[in-house]
């Protein structure tokens, strides 16, 4: 019964983790029981929330830990299954399977669907067996797109790879394209935003503006709502959580 | 006889490609015969240079193309072996080898060492068999570090993984740590820069300042020196090329 949303794009540094953490925090703050799954070997979601779990997704997949022990509570209404370097071992596990490797994560995370309203998955840059596994686990994709040319070029590449999976896996759909790093002082980001609005009118979200508070919050292990609740960054992620939750009412 | 420099860090979006392309271009402009090897499935180096080769590193490794045909000339003194999506096949090839998989790239690129003064390798975010291959090919590492907390956390993670390889492979050394996205209007980047200078006094380079020209140049397929030769971005990468070349004189 949980809505499962993957925050994904192969391009690096466009705000996947910032979005996964602050969207999940925004949903938790508005009363939704939310789980963040960190599927990135960088393990930055835990760091950004100021928690340091000893174990997480790797141990859940290997069976070393049961569901209850792999999850830690990060905030009220907000739980986390941490990623991190040990996930590299899971990629090997996935690659060694003769069949069904792409459903490894979905099988391990199945127990949680009945326990949460939302599962938000933070994904790694690049494209590898873990990326494919996230695509066979979640039902909805949210793509953060930094308003810079290199990032838009990355969007095209990601969508081509995504489409091959979506042709095969009918349980997944592209729901949200979230422009990030909107900088009104400069011309090109606005032009790129206008282009995205033309290309994806039904998917485009209100952009997240460049706001240095978003880059500072993780150094205090705080969400943007804790660190700077009146900042543009907090406004923009509050709006994203509102939009995502509103879509949950009409589903 | 070529100096082989890998531009690498697992963290996404910190300026690896921007640095690889503009450092290589700066070296070429000062008369050094330079080869860029794009070892990233995103294939953004070719895009940033305004070229669209049909084949490149993948075909070189599989033997489908010989050295001369896998390389294209991008500028005067500047050649490129393109990356791109097909590199995913190379990762599988590497993983299937019983031994020596980590030297796949080194073997394929061996013919070029005598033909160039510099080989600059653009690397993908994350950490996978291709990353390890780059580490067994190059002799020097240049790490771009965006002056933001999430990026510094990524630096720590990358250095731990790098050290394991460096303990085993004595032909590689960490030469340069390049702070990127220095923004003087904001306090935290300067504080993080001061911290990096304390931690790595012998490796730290003059920082690359945030300069929107650097993000715009790729949309014209131009290097920063072509697009905005008097910009802070051009100054900073001109200085980096000068420093790297000067180290080549004293080696
Ligand atoms: N809107 C914003 N304004 C200012 N800084 C931001 C914004 N969004 C993200 N950042 C900062 O930009 C950097 C990249 O963001 P983040 O780490 O969330 O991207 P990512 O896509 O998860 O990166 P990776 O590909 O490495 O996983 C971080 O330092 C983050 O704090
Ligand atoms: N100093 C700078 N000032 C402004 N923009 C920059 C600067 N350096 C890089 N950029 C822009 O920031 C974005 C990320 O840079 P780039 O793509 O080079 O990083 P990367 O580390 O190669 O990313 P990836 O991890 O996806 O390979 C690009 O849009 C680029 O044009
Ligand atoms: Mg991330
Ligand atoms: Mg790159």
Provide an overview of this structure:
Two copies of one chain form a homodimer. The N and C termini of chain A lie close together (12 Å). In chain A, helix 1 packs across helix 12 (232-250). The first copy, chain A, has helices at residues 16-29, 44-49, 57-62, 67-70, 87-96, 104-109, 129-135, 149-168, 187-199, 212-216, 224-227, 232-250; strands at residues 3-7, 34-39, 72-75, 78-81, 118-123, 140-146, 173-180. Chain A has twelve helices and seven strands. Chain A has a seven-stranded mixed beta sheet, with helices on both faces. By secondary structure, chain A is an alpha/beta fold. Chain A binds chain B through residues 10-14, 17-18, 41-44, 47-48, 85, 88, 91, 95, 124-128, 146, 148-151, 153-154, 157, 160-161, 183, 186, 188, 212, 215-216, 218-219, and chain B through 10-14, 17-18, 41-44, 47-48, 85, 88, 91, 95, 124-128, 146, 148-151, 153-154, 157, 160-161, 183, 186, 188, 212, 215-216, 218-219. Bound molecules: adenosine-5'-triphosphate (2 copies) and magnesium ion (MG) (2 copies). One magnesium ion is lined by residues 16-17, 40, 42, 44 of chain A. The site of one magnesium ion (MG) has 5 residues of chain B, from helix 1.
Features:
homodimer; 251 residues; alpha/beta; seven-stranded mixed sheet; 12 helices; 45% helix; 16% strand; binds adenosine-5'-triphosphate; binds magnesium ion
């Amino acid at each position: 019964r949980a809505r499962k949303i993957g925050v994904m794009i192969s391009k690096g540094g466009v705000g996947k983790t910032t979005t996964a953490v602050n969207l999940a925090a925004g949903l938790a703050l508005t009363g939704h029981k939310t789980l963040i799954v960190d599927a990135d070997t960088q393990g930055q979601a835990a760091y950004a929330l100021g928690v340091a779990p000893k174990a997480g997704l790797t141990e859940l997949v290997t069976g070393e830990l049961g569901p209850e022990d792999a999850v830690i509570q990060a905030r009220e209404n907000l739980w986390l299954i941490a990623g991190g370097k040990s996930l590299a071992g899971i990629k090997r596990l996935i690659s060694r399977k003769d069949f069904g490797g792409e459903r490894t994560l979905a099988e391990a995370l199945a127990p949680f669907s009945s326990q949460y309203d939302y599962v938000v998955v933070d994904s790694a840059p690049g494209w590898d067996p873990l990326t494919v596994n996230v695509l066979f686990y979640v039902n909805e994709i949210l793509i953060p797109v930094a308003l810079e040319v290199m990032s838009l070029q990355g969007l095209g590449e990601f969508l081509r790879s995504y489409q091959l999976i979506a042709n095969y896996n009918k349980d997944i759909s592209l729901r949200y394209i979230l422009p990030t790093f909107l900088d009104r002082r400069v011309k090109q980001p606005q032009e790129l935003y206008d282009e995205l609005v033309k290309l994806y009118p039904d998917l485009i979200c209100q952009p997240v503006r460049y706001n240095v508070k978003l880059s500072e919050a993780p150094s205090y292990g705080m969400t943007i709502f804790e660190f700077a609740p009146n900042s543009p960054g907090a406004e923009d992620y509050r709006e994203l959580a509102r939009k995502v939750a509103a879509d949950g009412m009409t589903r």
